[in-house]
Amino acid sequence: EPTNHLDIDAILWLEEFLLKRRGALLFITHDRALTRTLATRILEIDRGRLFNWNCDYPTYLQRREAQLEAEQAQQGQFDQRLKEEEAWLRQGVRARRTRNEGRVRALLRMREERRRMRQGVGGVRAKLQQSEKSSKRVITVQDLRFGYDDRRIVDGFTT
Fold first, then answer.
1. Nearest in space to 113 (alpha carbons), one of 140, 135, 85
2. Which positions ≥6 away from 32 have C-beta within 8 Å?
């Protein structure tokens, strides 16, 4: 979350700085304005799968919406076919006379496939464990100065 604790001026400076930068940049953010300004490729983790969208943020939103609509249409067709197969199986004696065991096996596979289908946009569940506090010093800094061009970001920081 690169913009979490920045004011507007700092965010604008960061955007300008990153736009001038050459090379790859990976950032994780909920800041849609920053994403719209900087992103040229989006990696999305959705329901345990990784999706690579090689486009800017507005295009990603359009393509993802189209993909979700296509999935819903495909799922609707699948559900209709499953419903028809279930009705065929429930025809009882008449179905048993003409029953094709391969068709029954296919129906069982369809039921299993239906259980595995993606259901809407999912969330992420993460289980984090709190660790013991460590008395070990990780880093020591004395009189740290950092900046770009004429703009000083950190001046005289000591831990």
1. 85
2. 57
